[in-house]
Design brief:
The protein is mainly alpha-helical. About 80% of the residues lie in helices and about 0% in strands. It is built from 4 helices and no strands.
Length: about 90
Amino acid sequence: SDNQSGCFFHLSFFGLAAAGLIKMKMQKRITKKVIGYPVVPILIIIFCLILVINTLIVQTRATLFGLLLMFSGVPFYFWFKRQKTSMGV
């Protein structure tokens, strides 16, 4: 069970990293050439989504716990972002 929840986290972060790459390329924050862009990142996102959905179906409780744990950081992100803008940074 531990190994499979770790797999869930890895897949989620790989998919999010590929999505971040696409977003940053579209915003022109990354100007270097990326091999396989945009096909490879899109395939990674699709593959990760399929495997995360499969994990959600097969191990619902563990996956929901993993999602809860992952998204528990979202309020901290917005809190730190608000702190940063209020300080003028």
